Amino acid sequence: MSELLRINDLHVAFPTDDGLVRAVDGVSLTVSQGETVAIVGESGSGKTVTSLSVMGLHKKGTAEISGSISVAHDGGFLDVITASEEEIRSMRGRSVAMIFQDPMSALHPYYKIGDQLAEAYLVHNPGKKKEAAARAVEMLDLVGISEPAQRAKEFPHQFSGGMRQRVMIAMALMNSPKMLIADEPTTALDVTVQAQILTLLASLQKEFNMGILLITHDLGVVAQVSEKVNVMYAGRIVEQGGVDDIFYNPMQPYTLGLLKSVPRISATGSERLKAIPGQPPSLISLPAGCAFAPRCEYIKFADSNACATQMPALVGTSAGHTSRCHIDESKRQASFAEAMKEVR
Amino acid sequence: MVRFIGRRIFFAIVTILLVSAAVFAIFSFLPFDPASLTCGQRCTPQIIEGNRIKLGFDKPIYEQYWLFLSGIFVGRTYGSGSAAFSCPAPAFGYSFNENACVTDMIKESLPITLNLAVGALVIWLVLGISLGVIAAKFKNRWPDTSSSVFVLLGTSLPTFVTGLALLIWVSIKWKIVPMSLDGYVSVLDSPSRWFMYFILPWITLAIAYAALYTRFTRAAVLDTLGEDYIRTARAKGVRERTVLFKHTLRAVLAPIVTLAGLDFAGLVGGAIITETIFNLPGLARLTLRSVYEFDLPVVLATTILAAVVVIVMNLIVDMLYAVLDPRVRI
C-alpha cells in the first residue's frame, strides 16, 4: 500500500485581534491507498482546518501554517505548504478531491449540474469539452443518479439533499483522484440517506482504490467505514489507532467520554445522556499541560500536577495505537473497565 | 412563463389606471380654476368660459377622466367649427401655455431624457461594478481604500456640485467639451456631437450612482466569496481569476440588475438637477417648468408617464430575474 498523504507536525494558527488561535497544534497522520482514515472530534477541535490545509484552501495571510503536508501528486510528492499556488491548483481536484459538509450550499445555484461537473474535468484538461460532458454523465450514473443525461441539464435546486451529495461525490471523481477528503459528508443528511451515501463511498473507494480522509464527529460513521481513527481535541490528536483499538480499548479519557456519550437504543427511560462535563478550552489560551485535564473525570488516577503542567506525549502500547495521557497503563485498565462495560 | 407575463401585464394596466385616476383626481381638486389658467394677463370672463367649454372643464369629473382616457387611444378634438384644434392619438391633453399638444411636448423631451439615463446607466454600471470587484479583490489594501474615498465623495457630493464643477472646469476653463452646441442631436445624425452634448451630464449622474454601485458590488462580491460553492470551485482546481469573474460575478449579477432597473426608472423624469444645470430640455425640465406655470395637463401627463416607467421597469426586472436566477421559475 503506497502512501498518498503524509501530514507531519502540522500547526495552523489564525492571528485575531484577541490573540493567536491555535486551531491545529502538531498533527501528524498518514493515509494510504485503499484505506479510510477518520478524524473525529467535537466542533472546533481542528478537524476541518486540518482538511482544508491539505487542499491549500486557507486564505493567504489569514493563517500561519507550519510543518509539512506531502500529497502524492504526478508520481511524486507535493508539499502543499511550500508549493506554489499553481502547483496546488493542479493538485486540487485531480490528485486530491474534496467533498463538503453541506451539499445544499456547496453547489453553485446558477449553473447546471452537468456544467459544474464538466468544469472539474475541464480545469485540468483544457479544451476537452465533449469528453468532460460525457464524463459528467458517466459519473452521475456511477453515483446512482437515474437518467443522468437528463439530470445533468438540471440545476442544483432541483435535487434533494442526498442527491446533491451524490452529485458532489460525482464531481470529486471527475478526474479519478487517488485521494478523497470527505469533510462531514453525511452530517447534513438524514439517517437513511447517510447510510446510502456511506455505502456509496465505500463501494467507490474499492472501485477507484482511493484513500479517504474522513472528517466527522459521528462515531457511528467512524465505526461503519474507517480502518484508522484519529481523535482530536483542542487542535491535537489525543488518540490514534485502528478502529477496533479505539472502540474496544480506548486509552484516553476523552475518547472514552465520546464513546460513553453515544446515545444507546437499549437505554431505559430514566437513563440520561452522558455528556462530558465542561467546555472545550479556548484555542487562544490553551492550558499548559493536557488540554483535557480541566474536564477529565479520571484525573485522580494520574499525577494531577503533571496533567496541569506537562503536555502528555503521543505514546502507545503498540506502534498502531497511541494516546496522550498521564494515567499509567496499569491504572488505566482498572479505571476504564467499569465505563467500558457500559459502552458495550 | 406566458401566463405569468399575461397576469403581470394585466396588473400593470390596472395599476396604471389607478395611478392615472388618482393623479387626475388630485389635479381636479386643486383650488385652481383650470380654465382661468389657460389665458394670460388680458383675460375676459368670455374667453375663460370659452376655453372651459373647449377643454371640457365644464363637464363632470368622471366624464373629464373618460375623455382623457379615450383621448389616449383615439385622439381628441377641442372646440368646434373653424376654431377647433385636435391632438391625434395618443393624446394626453392640450397645453394652453405652450399652445401645443402635450404628446408633442413629451415626444420632444423624452428622447433627451432617455439618452441621458441610458448613457449614465452604462457608465455607472461599468465603473461601479469594476471598482466594486477591484475593491473586494484587494480588500483592505490600497485599491480598496482609494475606492472607498471615491465612494465617500460620490455619495456625499450633490449632483449640483459635481455638475457645476464639471461645467466650470471641463467646459469653461479647459474648454475640453464645448459649452453650448445647437441643442440636442440624435446619435444617428452626428455621433460626435451627440457624445459631446451628453458626456458631462452622463458623468455627473454616473458619479453619484457609481459610488453606490461600487459599495454594493464590493459587499456582494465579498459575501459571495465566502459562500460554500466558491470553496467548492477552488477545491476543483479552478483558477482564482475564474472563481472571481465567473462564479462570483455570476451570483452578484442578479441583484445588481434589479437595482439598476429601478434606479433607471427613477431617472426617467427624475434627473431634475442634472437637466437644469446642463440645460437639457428633458422630461424633468418639462415637468418642472409646467409645475411653475401651473400647466396642469403637462404635469398630469408627465406624472403618469413616470409612474408607467416605474411599473414597466419593475415588470422587466422581474422577468430578467427569472432569466438570471434558475431558482426563480415563473
> What is the string of helix and strand elements of chain A?
EEEHEEHEHHHHHEHEHEEHHHEEH
Largest sheet of chain B: 2 strands, antiparallel
Question: Would you tell me which CATH topology of the largest domain in chain A applies?
Answer: Rossmann fold
Spatial arrangement of strands, main beta sheet of chain B: 1-2
CA-CA gap between termini of chain A:
33 Å
> What is the averaged pLDDT score of chain A?
91
Q: Total number of helical segments of chain A?
A: 13
Percent helix of chain A = 25-40%
Q: What is the overall shape of chain A?
A: globular
Q: Kindly estimate the percentage of residues of chain B that lie in beta strands according to DSSP.
A: under 5%
Helical percentage of chain B: over 70%
CATH architectural type of the largest domain in chain A = 3-Layer(aba) Sandwich
Structural class of chain A: alpha/beta
Main structural class of chain B: mainly alpha
Verbal overview:
The complex is a heterodimer of chains A (about 350) and B (about 325). With about 350 residues, chain A is an alpha/beta fold. Chain A is about 35% helix and about 25% strand. Helix content of chain B is about 70%, strand content about 5%. Chain B has helices at about 1-30, 45-55, 60-75, 100-135, 140-155, 160-175, 190-225, 230-235, 240-265, 270-275, 285-290, 295-325; strands at about 75-80, 85, 95, 100. The longest helix of chain B has about 35 residues, at about 100-135. Chain B is globular, with a radius of gyration of 24 Å. The interface of A and B includes residues 98, 119 and 155 of A.
